């Protein structure tokens, strides 16, 4: 420990013990140098540290005083919540219990919605962030408000060109993650009480957004091998006043299925015929295992009806909360809604990501990430074959990092979730992916984390739980 730290500790102990009460003037620097036999800079640094800890305050030309509140105990870290006890739960609280359990570092994250943070180039990213922040033009605070930082949107537009889409930069709006983009799209094209078509099973946050905005949902089945049922969708469009569709076309969450190119084209044509906007959620599109990125439905849109939403949360920088929407004819409405709801996406983050996309080697990182995920999919499949009952069915996804397991019919996925959590393993139970709590015998598991003995033994435990008499 450095001398100034030791001195700061000694004085902090005096203050906390009440021997130096609130408002007391601290001894002068000269006094302390003599008392402790240290140099002036050591005393100053100790005082700065005490100030940082909130224990003392400087008064101009007067010296340092013990700060109000210095006697209060330091805020304790939040104790980890105990593992959930078996209890009846509804879908919303189940969603939060799953998300809460993901936060626990001691729980095996098979229920996580993210890949391992270890797979992201965090050091290179922070270099871009530091560089961009140093160069930040003070006016960017206003210039980069919605639709967002122009160099960033140009970088994003270049990536659309890579998918064969001539994406106008003016129609790209930067958001706080894809979630904000998706919600703003929904807000732009619906009013409370309207009907929206969603997938079944679907990403649980879509259900929450629909509920939150007071909308009604018509669920369109998704087959884990074939994807969205377009015949049912056509019927729903004829029967109901559907105002918008919210679908995933690539590596759907939770099933992992990708729509074929023909189906994507047919979907866009069907919706164009009915003049119904498509909110396309494509957050996993870059995580493909085949050579080429599967195109989004946006690639077939000639009417500006598709709002293509994506983010870097699953591919580069989860905590940065950087997403966007290629909003077609709704761009202006969404830009205004973005201003009204969150004013702007963090300006330094936008600039930092623009710098990274330009200079950081994003495509090289993506190649590495995809390679890791593909290897982890293989390890997960081997573990399933080794530890889980043979009756389990799943379709092999061509990208992303989720497996949707259909368990034997008698298995209760909610119960399995609770039992697994009690054993320190998180899996996502099927019913949270459905408005009607369907998929009671399905679970989604995440293979986005480097394989470890902990994962192997978690899979073994799942096998034991599945084989145990209920
Ligand atoms: C299908 C899907 N869409 C959207 C999101 C939200 O993305 P973001 O974290 O960029 O807001 C997620 C995150 O889990 C997701 O799985």
UniProtKB/TrEMBL annotation:
Q: Which CDD domains match?
A: AAT_like (cd00609), WHTH_GntR (cd07377)
Q: Where is the HTH gntR-type domain?
A: 1-69
Q: Which residues form the signal peptide?
A: none
PROSITE patterns, sorted = HTH_GNTR
* Superkingdom to which the source organism belongs: Bacteria
Whether Glycoprotein counts among this entry's keywords is no
GO MF terms here are: DNA binding; DNA-binding transcription factor activity; pyridoxal phosphate binding; transaminase activity
InterPro entries attached to this UniProt entry: Aminotransferase_I/II_large, HTH_trans_reg/aminotransferase, PyrdxlP-dep_Trfase, PyrdxlP-dep_Trfase_major, PyrdxlP-dep_Trfase_small, Tscrpt_reg_HTH_GntR, WH-like_DNA-bd_sf, WH_DNA-bd_sf
Q: Which UniProt keywords apply?
A: Aminotransferase, DNA-binding, Pyridoxal phosphate, Transcription, Transcription regulation, Transferase
Asked whether the UniProt record includes Nuclease among its keywords, one would answer: no
What protein family is recorded? Answer: In the C-terminal section; belongs to the class-I pyridoxal-phosphate-dependent aminotransferase family.
Protein's UniProt name: GntR family transcriptional regulator
Q: In which organism is this protein found?
A: Caballeronia hypogeia
Q: What's the source species' lineage?
A: Bacteria, Pseudomonadati, Pseudomonadota, Betaproteobacteria, Burkholderiales
